[in-house]
Specification:
This protein is mostly helical. The chain is 55% helix and 3% strand. It has a two-stranded antiparallel ribbon. The radius of gyration is 16 Å and the shape is elongated.
């Protein structure tokens, strides 16, 4: 849960680097939260089949949009890529696949142009 709160405290910080753990834990908690809120939306009756989203899940998604973009850009920085590569998301299938692979890659060792390596040394 600390990773989630850490990302929210850096709400709109697009500078710096984010570790794989920070990115993936935030993504996991968002997935679980949206799934649970969609279930509640369906149970309460405010889920739209046409829009494929409910009120609570939709509002939550809007609230975490900027933190999600920020942590994704910082994750790209951690692999020594510009945040502009996030625009690959608009390329159907291939863009998402490339971004997924980059999100799974390990941090660039040492410092890079985006800052110090946030990964603790053991």
């Amino acid at each position: 849960m600390d990773w989630y709160v850490q990302v929210l405290t850096k709400y709109a910080e697009f500078n710096g680097r984010a570790t794989r753990s920070e990115y993936w834990y935030f993504t996991l908690i968002n997935f679980v939260a949206i799934f649970a809120l969609s279930f509640i939306d369906g149970f309460v009756g405010i889920f739209s089949i046409n829009g494929n989203v409910g009120l609570f899940a939709g509002l939550y998604s809007l609230l975490v949009l900027v933190p999600y973009l920020a942590v994704t850009v910082r994750r790209l920085h951690d692999t020594n890529r510009s945040g502009w590569w996030l625009l690959l998301e608009f390329v159907p299938v291939l863009g998402s696949l490339v971004l997924f692979i980059w999100m799974v890659l390990d941090s660039q060792a040492g410092d890079n142009q985006y800052g110090k390596n946030p990964k603790p040394l053991y």
